[in-house]
Amino acid sequence: MPHRSNLSLESPLLWRKRVPPAALAGLAQLLALLVCGFLLWLPLQWGMRLNLAQALILESLCAVAISYSLRLPGWWLAIQALFVPALYGMWLLALAPAWYLAGFVLLASVYWSTYATQVPLYLSRRRVWQRVLEQLPTQPGLRFADLGSGVGGLVHYLARRRRDSCFSGIEAAPLPYWIGKLRALRQSNALLQWGNFWRTDLGNYDVVFAYLSPVPMPALWEKIRREMRPGTLFISYRFAVPGVVPHAVIEMRDLGRTQLYLWRV
Ligand SMILES: C[S@@+](CC[C@H](N)C(=O)[O-])C[C@H]1O[C@@H](n2cnc3c(N)ncnc32)[C@H](O)[C@@H]1O
């Protein structure tokens, strides 16, 4: 039965895709500690003991091997190799626990749900904002949304140049949201909202912009097709929608050879 054989082929990959890489990395470290503990215990039976440096190297190797078998991307392998040695190094520094708490709160307020969304904060530049401004329809009363607006740079820039229109940014992470909100205080046509853009109705906008990552693009395209009105515009910086040809591509002519993709819905 072809249906059953498809399932058995796909299911291991499916669960792997559903679990965020950060959770897989944590699982790999736990397994590595267990395996490493066993491998350290084994030679003790014959009176041999590994020193600390050897134990750290062994743990790193276990973590990398397990992460590799879980198909974590290459840059995760480097993180996994350094994780426990770095923990040990931090322990040697003997910092007060409050520093760890402060570091955690700061990182959490910037990266918030990145472990799940796989969309970290990195900011687009003025050159991108200029190209986006050039693409906006000229009619007044335009409604624009930046999905994941970061510190609100694009929203602020556009709102100052198109006072006839309304520019919204939706951002999930608290610290970037507050920075954007404060920047837009004196800009009545800029609206920064703290929230999850997956819960925002895109039918309210004439132009939607996103600078996210490859991960959400297929689902975002489905949402756009469901909610945006015919004739409206979707612009994505850097990340294309797999298998959907844009109606225009603008080369940014920068070092990274990045592109702006435009789709007329
Ligand atoms: C690559 S940054 C882009 C920032 C900004 N648009 C720019 O061009 O400078 C992506 C932002 O999207 C935010 N983000 C990711 N998923 C989100 C979601 N579901 N709802 C709201 N914001 C989200 C992240 O917190 C991050 O700040």
Explain what the structure shows.
- The protein is elongated.
- It has 2 domains: about 1-95, no CATH class; about 125-265, 3-Layer(aba) Sandwich (Rossmann fold).
- The model is unreliable at about 1-10 (pLDDT under 50).
- α2 packs across α3 (about 50-70) and α3 runs antiparallel to α4.
- By secondary structure, the chain is an alpha/beta fold.
- The protein has helices spanning about 1-20, 20-45, 50-70, 75-95, 95-110, 115, 125-135, 155-160, 175-185, 215-225, and strands at about 145, 165-170, 190-195, 205-210, 235, 250, 260-265.
- The longest helix is centred in the N-terminal third of the chain and has 24 residues, at about 20-45.
- The protein has a 7-stranded mixed beta sheet.
- Bound molecules: S-adenosylmethionine.
- S-adenosylmethionine (SAM) binds near residues 119, 123, 197 and 212.
Shape: elongated
- Side-by-side strand order of the widest sheet: 3-2-1-4-5-7-6
Biggest sheet details? 7 strands, mixed
- CATH topology heading of the largest domain: Rossmann fold
- Structural class, please? alpha/beta
Q: Specify Rg, calculated over alpha carbons.
A: 24 Å
How helix-rich are the residues, as a percent range? 40-55%
The second-level CATH architecture of the largest domain is 3-Layer(aba) Sandwich
- What proportion of the residues form beta strands (DSSP E)? 5-15%
The number of domains is 2
The number of distinct β-strands equals 7
Average pLDDT, rounded to a whole number, is: 90
- String of helices and strands: HHHHHHHEHEHEEHEEE
Tell me which ligands are bound.
Answer: S-adenosylmethionine
Main CATH class of the largest domain: Alpha Beta
